[in-house]
Amino acid sequence: SDDMSPEINPSSRREFLAGAARVSALAGIALPPVHAAENNTVPIALVGCGGRGTGAAENALSVPNGPTKLVAMADVVPKKMSDSYDRLKSKFASQVDVPPERRFLGYNAFEQAMDALKPGGIVILGTPPAFRWVHFRRAIDKGLHTFMEKPISVDGPTTRKMLALGQEADK
């Protein structure tokens, strides 16, 4: 719905992204500028709720010049999802707005989590690198900014796919 993922003010987004870049590298992916809008909240979806993904979400929610809000989560393992949700909700209660209907489980859950965002939102990919190019492809198609935990690929063919997708994302 429109109220869960508003468009974002570009100056707030630039401040957030500058802070996020200081907290963690953005894997060499350039982020395009965003057009003016009404709401300054930066909506985030977390795909991959293990330790690295949850840690990246904590970093994103900790950026002092946000404001950020986690609005969707996806994983294939129910316990990882519930543990991640509990940990993030206990640390960032006012910034975690992920009701059960936006906690997606299964191999296609990444699509549902990204669908919860409007273009210009941010998706955090904390998934295993074998799936990364598929998830990044979806994020590009949805017009989402993307943070990826490293490594982003583990073999030559996948690295070539990721480099090509990075060039496409730049456009």
Question: What descriptors fit this protein?
Answer:
171 residues, 44% helix, single chain, disordered N terminus, 6 helices, globular, 5-stranded parallel beta sheet, alpha/beta
Please give the structural blueprint.
Layout (H helix, E strand, L loop, with lengths): L9 H14 L18 E6 L3 H12 L5 E8 L2 H14 L11 E3 L3 H7 L6 E4 L3 H14 L2 E4 L7 H15 L1
Parallel strand pairs: 1-2, 1-4, 2-3, 4-5
Helix pairs in contact: 2-3, 4-5, 5-6
N-to-C SSE string, H for helix and E for strand: HEHEHEHEHEH
Proportion in helices: 40-55%
Query: How many strands, which pairing sense, and closed or not: the largest β-sheet?
Result: 5 strands, parallel
Structure class: alpha/beta
Going across the major beta sheet, what is the strand order?
3-2-1-4-5
Radius of gyration: 15 Å
How many beta-strand segments? 5
If you average the pLDDT, what whole number results? 84
Q: Which outline best applies? A: globular
The total of helices stands at 6
Multimerization state: single chain
